Amino acid sequence: MASGRSKTLDCLYLLHLTLVLSLGAGTVKSAATRCPEFCHCEADEDGQIVSCIGYDLKNIPKGLPVDTVQLNIRNNDIEILDLNDLKPLLRLQGLDVSENNIKAIQGTFEDFPKLTQVQLYDNKLTTLSPDTFGKAATRMHYVSLFNNPWNCDCNLE
């Protein structure tokens, strides 16, 4: 009878250990894909699609998943787009920051080796430094810059 009780305890121990390990793995996974407040994150086969649309955000949200491949921060109140805030997102392929109040861009799109789509329409951009896109311009498939109050002065240097 002791051996039957021992087998039962062994089975319960294994069941408990399996449950703890399963829950622990789930916790690690959810922490890695945590989504910032005011954003919606959806898993894609390539990574996370993150949307933070229409919340009057003044800055890029902190804590974006590092496996973000598409980031949509459209229709907010961002005035300065600091690309340095996005540097951890090395898998970023598409960025939509249209319909904000962006007047300036700090940093360069060269820091994002997989980025091929940028939407900056409906902002308040008047000029862009050649360094903003730099060599990344050659890999861009789609860049949308319309409806900005561009300073089109032929004397610009």
How would you summarize what this structure contains?
The chain has 157 residues and is an alpha/beta fold. It has helices spanning 2-32, 130-133, and strands spanning 40-43, 48-51, 68-72, 80-82, 94-96, 104-106, 117-119, 142-144. The chain is built from 2 helices and 8 strands; from the N terminus they run H-E-E-E-E-E-E-E-H-E.
CATH class categorisation of the largest domain: Alpha Beta
Topology, number of strands:
8
Please tally the helical runs, counting DSSP H or I stretches of 4 or more residues: 2
How many domains comprise the coordinates? Answer: 2
> Superfamily at the CATH H level of the largest domain?
Ribonuclease Inhibitor
* Low-confidence runs: 7-32
Average pLDDT reading: 85
InterPro entries: Leu-rich_rpt, Leu-rich_rpt_typical-subtyp, LRR_dom_sf, LRR_TM_domain-containing, LRRNT
Signal peptide: 1-30
Keywords: Leucine-rich repeat, Repeat, Signal
Domain LRRNT: 34-70
How would you describe what is shown here?
By secondary structure, this protein is α/β, with parallel strands linked by helices. The protein has 2 domains: 32 residues; 109 residues, Ribonuclease Inhibitor (Leucine-rich repeat, LRR (right-handed beta-alpha superhelix), Alpha-Beta Horseshoe), CATH 3.80.10.10. It is 22% helix and 18% strand. The chain contains 2 helices and 8 strands, in the order αβββββββαβ. The strands form 2 sheets. The chain has a 6-stranded mixed sheet, with no helix packed on it. A two-stranded parallel ribbon has the order 4-6. The longest helix is centred in the first third of the chain and has 31 residues. The relative contact order is 0.11. About 17% of the residues have low confidence.
